[in-house]
Specification:
Layout lengths: L3 E5 L4 H10 L5 E5 L17 H13 L5 E11 L6 E2 L12 H11 L7 E11 L5 E12 L15 E3 L6 H4 L1 H7 L1 H18 L1
Parallel strand pairs: 1-2, 1-3
Antiparallel strand pairs: 3-4, 3-5, 5-6, 6-7
Helix pairs in contact: 5-6
Length: 200
């Protein structure tokens, strides 16, 4: 009997490897959409929440194949900036999604702020073969540093210090980040949901 497939909307190799690693002990075949030759997949993320964007991406992928699918959306929410950059995190400083420029804009906007608390949130949308939708989320609380620290990671990792640690994500490295991050927490929730779905 063939394993049920789970198709990932992302083509980001880092994300694909991370998801495969976390789900490796589940009886399911995890594949990226590229492995199924699903091309020209460009979704306009015009939702007002992470949930709306992740569901929209998952729905459009589910229309292109007959397997279970997942899509995710992530944002950094800074309390002193009324939740900005939020759903616009990847394009905070412009549509090109430049990590360096995004961090620069964030640090500038926080220059005079004493409250530097923030949190990352990831929402994963899972759609089963019969088109049932599940959403799962993970949150990682922390604070924004006054300058970049560390050379690892991507996005806002050089300026985000997770709660309970003295270093930024960029300093802590992948192995630590992948255990405590927002995405890791959401993926653990996904794993538990998939276990239940497979048992049914």
């Amino acid at each position: 009997m063939n394993k049920r497939k789970l198709v990932l909307s992302t083509e980001n190799k880092h994300k694909v490897d991370e998801i495969k690693a976390i789900l490796r002990d589940i009886d399911i075949e995890v594949v990226s959409r590229g492995e199924l030759d699903i091309e020209d997949f460009h979704v306009v993320e015009d939702g007002e929440t992470l949930e709306e964007n992740s569901i929209k991406k998952a729905r459009e992928l589910a229309e292109r194949c007959d397997y279970m699918v997942i899509a995710d959306d992530t944002g950094l929410f800074v309390n002193a900036l009324n939740g900005q950059p939020g759903i616009y995190s990847s394009r905070y400083a412009g549509e090109d999604g430049n990590d360096y420029n995004n961090c620069t804009k964030l640090l500038k906007n926080l220059e005079d702020q004493k409250d530097r608390s923030a949190y990352f949130k990831t929402v994963i949308a899972l759609i089963t073969e019969n088109k049932k939708i599940y959403t799962l989320e993970g949150i990682c609380k922390g604070s924004i540093e006054t300058e970049r620290k560390g050379s690892g990671g991507f996005g806002y990792d050089p300026v985000f210090k997770p709660e309970g640690y003295d270093h930024t994500f960029a300093e802590l490295g992948e192995s630590v980040k992948n255990k405590i991050s927002h995405r890791a927490k959401a993926l653990i929730e996904l794993k538990e949901s998939l276990k239940s779905i497979l048992e049914d």
